[in-house]
């Protein structure tokens, strides 16, 4: 019997993990070898499902989306938790071995640089999500809610703010993270010990690779350290669809 249910986002042509937020949790579950199962939700199903589990919405200042993926249920006591960081802490508490350090100085240091990279690349990535991955009900929801957030249709946002200018803005953060990966010899940010901070980066790389191989390669060709981290984590990326 699976001990945990992981809620993840549906996709086409078949369900598999694509978004970098649920990847953080899935990487942790795979790393620890926990017996879990996945329940796939279309975007419009997320809020009703999590309300029915009795979850409180995300605080507005932390996440503009009230109900979000990843969310998990621990079946031993039916506890439901939303948000990858809160989930990570609870998993670490319940399944301490093998250890996955979470609140490390490295994660703190990664934070700002990661925000620069992920934030700058939004216009380069976001319009691809409905095009490449989403089924019609999620596609309609995603295009509508993101157009509201960015104040224009996604394709226009992509044309206006994506491309080279987005990569230029991301450069400083990419360089800093590559520097961090080199500092302790790799393949992980803390050298030979993998930590939750690594899964943040690996999740983003996997998301980009799924959207288009060239996006992933643009990073790993310039900064091979990212490729080394990715390769060292491949074993935990294998299970992506159940
Ligand atoms: N900081 C949160 C972010 C979660 C998040 O925003 N997830 C997105 C998918 S990647 C989501 O569920 N969005 C739901 C929506 O847009 O309605 C975490 O790490 O769990």
UniProtKB/TrEMBL annotation:
Residues 9-99 form the GST N-terminal domain. GO terms for molecular function: glutathione transferase activity; maleylacetoacetate isomerase activity. One of its GO terms (biological process) is glutathione metabolic process. It comes from the Eukaryota. Keywords: Transferase. It comes from Viridothelium virens (Speckled blister lichen). Transmembrane segments: none annotated. This is Putative glutathione S-transferase.
């Amino acid at each position: 019997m699976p001990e945990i249910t992981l809620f993840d986002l549906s996709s086409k042509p078949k369900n598999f993990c694509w978004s970098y937020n649920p990847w953080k949790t899935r990487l942790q579950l795979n790393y620890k070898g926990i017996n879990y199962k996945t329940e796939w939700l279309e975007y419009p199903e997320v809020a009703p499902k999590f309300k029915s589990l009795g979850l409180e919405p995300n605080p507005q200042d932390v996440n503009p989306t009230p109900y979000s993926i990843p969310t998990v249920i621990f079946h031993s006591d039916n506890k439901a938790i939303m948000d990858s960081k809160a989930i990570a802490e609870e998993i670490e508490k319940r399944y301490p071995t093998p250890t996955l350090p979470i609140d490390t100085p490295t994660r703190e240091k990664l934070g700002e640089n990661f925000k620069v990279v992920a934030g700058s690349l939004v216009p380069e990535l976001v319009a691809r999500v409905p095009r490449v991955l989403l089924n019609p009900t999620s596609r309609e929801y995603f295009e509508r809610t993101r157009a509201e957030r960015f104040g224009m249709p996604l394709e226009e946002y992509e044309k206006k703010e994506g491309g080279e200018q987005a990569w230029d803005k991301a450069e400083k953060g990419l360089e800093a993270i590559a520097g961090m990966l080199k500092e302790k010899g790799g393949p992980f940010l803390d050298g030979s010990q993998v930590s939750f901070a690594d899964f943040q980066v690996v999740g983003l790389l996997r998301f980009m690779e799924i959207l288009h191989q060239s996006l992933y390669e643009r990073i790993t060709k310039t900064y091979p350290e990212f490729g080394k981290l990715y390769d060292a984590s491949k074993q935990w990326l294998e299970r992506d669809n159940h």
